[in-house]
Amino acid sequence: MKKLATLLVIAIALAIIGCQPPQQQNVVTTEQLDAVKAEISALKTQVTNLQTALDSLTANYNAHLDKYHKSMPKPPSGGTGGGLKPIQK
Amino acid sequence: MRKLLTLTAFALLLAFVGCESEVTLETPDVSYTITDQGATLALTWDEIADADGYYIYADGVKIDSVTTPSYDATTPAALYEVSAYAGSDESGKDQIDCGAVETTSLIVYGSGDPSPDHPSGFGFNASGAATTYAVSDSTNWPYIDYWIHSVSANEQEFASPSQASYNDEVNTTKNSGQTDYDAVTICDAPGGYIAPNTINANAVYYFWIDPDGDGWGTNNDYFGKIQVVGVNGYAVTLKLAYQPIAGLRWCVVE
C-alpha cells in the first residue's frame, strides 16, 4: 500500500511537471519585423551616403596632395649642409 | 574827330581785355607700362585741351617738361606726378605711386637651427610686407618666397623655395656689392641672379621673384632689395623693400 502511494505521488508529480505549459518564448510581431527592416534599409542608405562622401573626400585629398605635396622631399629643416642645386638667371 | 577815334580805340582795347576767358586746364589721367626689362616706367596720358605742355615731377621735384603726352621715366623714384601747363597756369597733378614697401626688421633663422620656434622661410604678402614662415608647416609652403639654408652653423644662404620643393617659384638674389641700403635705387637687370646665395653681414642684395621661372616679365615678377642687418649664428636680421609694381626694378622706399 505504501509503495502504491509512493508510485501515485511520483505519477502525480510527473503529471504536474509534464503538464507545465512550455516557457513563454520571445515572439516577434510583424510590426516589429517591419520596423527592423525599415531601420536596416535606412542604415543601408546611410552607409551608401557615407561611402559617397568618403570617395569625394579621398578625391579632394588626393588633389591636394598632387597640388602641394607630390614628390616633395622632406624639407631640410633639421640640419645643416646638403648642397642645393644652383640656379642662375 | 581825333578824340573820338582815340576813345573808340581805347574802348575796343578794354573790350578785348575784358572778353579774354580764363583757361582751366584739366589734370592729366596718367597710365603706365613697364619697359626696358623693368628699368623704365613709361607714362602716357591723353592730350589736355589748351595745354602748352606737361611738367614731370619725381618725388615732388620738377625734373622735366614735355609737349607730347608721354614720358619715359628712367630715374627711380617713389612717386611720379604729371601736370599740364599753359603759360603760367598749371593743372592739378596726377600721381603714380611707384615706391617700394619697406619691412624694417625681419629675423629669420637658418634651416639648421634646432628650435621649432625659429622660422626659416619668409615671403611677401599682397601689400608687399614681409612675413616669416615656419618651413616645418606644409600649409606655409605656398607663401614662402625665400628660405635660409644653413651650410653650417656660421654660414647661411638665401635659397629659392623650389630648391626644397616648398613650391615651384624660382626666386633668386644678387649681391649688389653695396652696403648703403638707401643708395640702392634700382635692381640689376636679369643676369647674375643666383640661388643659393651666401649671406654676408651688411651687404645689400637685389631679389627677383619669378614664380614661373620664365625670365623677366610684367605678369607676376617682382623685385626689391634686402639688407642683411646682422648675422648671429643661425639668426639673420633683414631689412627689406618690395616693389609692388610687377616687373619694375626700382626700389626707392616711399
Give the helix/strand layout.
The complex is a heterodimer of chains A (89) and B (254).
Chain A: H1 2-19, H2 30-69, E1 87-88
Chain B: H1 2-19, E1 31-35, E2 40-44, E3 53-58, E4 61-66, E5 70-73, E6 79-86, E7 89-90, E8 94-97, E9 101-109, E10 121-124, E11 130-133, E12 146-152, E13 155-159, E14 172-178, E15 194-195, E16 197-198, E17 204-209, E18 222-232, E19 235-242
Antiparallel strand pairs in B: 1-2, 2-5, 3-4, 3-6, 6-7, 6-8, 9-19, 10-11, 10-12, 12-13, 13-16, 14-17, 17-18, 18-19
Concise synopsis of the structure shown:
The complex is a heterodimer of chains A (89) and B (254). With 89 residues, chain A is mainly alpha-helical. Chain A contains two helices and one strand.
Q: What does this molecule look like?
A:
- The complex is a heterodimer of chains A (89) and B (254).
- With 89 residues, chain A is mostly helical.
- In chain A, 65% of the residues lie in helices and 2% in strands.
- Chain A contains two helices and one strand, in the order ααβ.
- Chain A has helices at 2-19, 30-69; one strand at residues 87-88.
- Residues 70-74 of chain A have low confidence and may be disordered.
- Chain B has 254 residues and is mainly β.
- Helices cover 7% and strands 41% of the residues of chain B.
- Chain B has one helix and 19 strands.
- In chain B, the strands form four sheets. In chain B, strands 3, 4, 6, 7 and 8 form a five-stranded antiparallel β-sheet that branches.
- In chain B, a hairpin with a 2-residue loop joins strand 18 (222-232) and strand 19.
- At the A-B interface, strand 1 of A face strand 12 and strand 15 of B.
- Strand 1 of chain A pairs antiparallel with strand 15 of chain B.
